[in-house]
Specification:
Largest sheet: 5 strands, mixed
Strand content: 15-25%
Order of helices and strands: HEHEHEHEEEHHEHEHEEHH
CATH class of the largest domain: Alpha Beta
Number of domains: 2
Oligomer: single chain
Helix content: 40-55%
CATH topology of the largest domain: D-Maltodextrin-Binding Protein, domain 2
CATH architecture of the largest domain: 3-Layer(aba) Sandwich
Number of helices: 10
Strand order of the largest sheet: 2-1-3-10-4
Number of strands: 10
Length: 254
């Protein structure tokens, strides 16, 4: 019996050590809404300075599609959504180990590579001088949903709809507008403030025209025993991370 107990203890220690090495050998896998492409890149860089040797892979995309991927077993450890309803959905389905946490409120803007966006209104998008307008796909991208709502509130959706070109996510939408595939884009303020994009003006869209872009994150069930996931989640609440988010135009929760 003594040897059986000892064997169990040795096995438990071995499994604990193996688990530690397993997590250490694998990068932290973060799924993030593409409005975070520049802000989160900066936060990850700051995290690596504070945690030397940390291995982190970030995949950017649309919140809706990434939610579907996680439901179908994609091995993401942390999920940053542009709409907290998606993390809430995962939590309801038992796929998270933390409660959905609000990390920011996003804003949408008018941006153009060829026109002065400061002179534009949503009503101007209906004019004959503007041939193509880019928005993110409303079916799965929160920023596209809010663009749709704003255009409806401004009573120009029906007129503008034939001009619309859709990006799979908001980063692709910004790139389409920047490349000239669209005359004007409705994009994330966080992308418009990136230095290369900020060479051109942007025009904030009145937040009363759409539902708020309440953005939230969760640690997924896949990272239940991954200390790096918790450490990164905690880092998002630090002054350093919050300052980066503010620099990219996000409104932060108190």
């Amino acid at each position: 019996m003594f040897f059986t107990a000892m064997n169990r203890l040795v096995m438990a220690i071995a499994l604990s050590v193996l688990s530690a090495f397993t997590w250490a050998d694998q990068p932290l896998r973060i799924a993030a809404a593409s409005d975070l492409r520049y802000a989160l890149d900066d936060i990850v860089a700051a995290y690596r300075i504070a945690h030397p040797g940390a291995a982190i892979n970030v995949i950017y995309g649309s919140s809706g599609k990434m939610t579907t991927q996680i439901i179908n077993g994609a091995p993401y450890d942390v999920f940053f959504s542009a709409d907290i309803s998606f993390p809430e959905q995962l939590a309801r389905e038992g796929l998270t180990v933390t409660k959905p946490t609000v990390y920011a409120i996003g804003r949408i803007v008018l941006w153009s590579n060829t026109l002065n966006a400061l002179d534009l209104t949503l009503a101007d998008l209906a004019s004959d001088q503007i041939e193509r307008v880019a928005i993110a796909q409303p079916a799965h991208a929160p920023y596209g949903m809010r663009a749709h709502e704003a255009l409806q509130s401004a009573d120009v959706w029906e007129t503008v709809q034939p001009k619309l070109v859709f990006g799979e996510n908001i980063a692709q939408t910004a790139q389409m507008t920047r490349s000239g595939a669209a005359d004007v884009g409705i994009i994330a303020l966080s992308l418009a403030l990136f230095p290369e994009m900020a060479k051109h003006n942007h025009k904030l869209i009145d937040r009363s025209l759409h539902q708020p872009l309440t953005q939230g994150f969760v640690v997924t069930r896949n990272a239940a025993d991954n200390p790096e996931a918790k450490a990164f989640a905690d880092f998002m609440g630090t002054k350093q991370a919050r300052n980066i988010m503010t620099r990219y135009g996000f409104v932060l929760p108190e």
